[in-house]
Amino acid sequence: MLSKGDILNKREKERYKKELLEKKKEINHHLSEFYTESKEVETGIAQDVVDRAESSYTKEFLLSLSNKERKQLSLINEALKRIEKGTFGICQRCTQEIGKKRLEAIPWTPYCINCQEKEEEESS
Question: What residues contact 90, with CB distance under 8 A and at least 6 apart?
Answer without folding.
Answer: 2, 4, 7, 82, 96, 97, 98
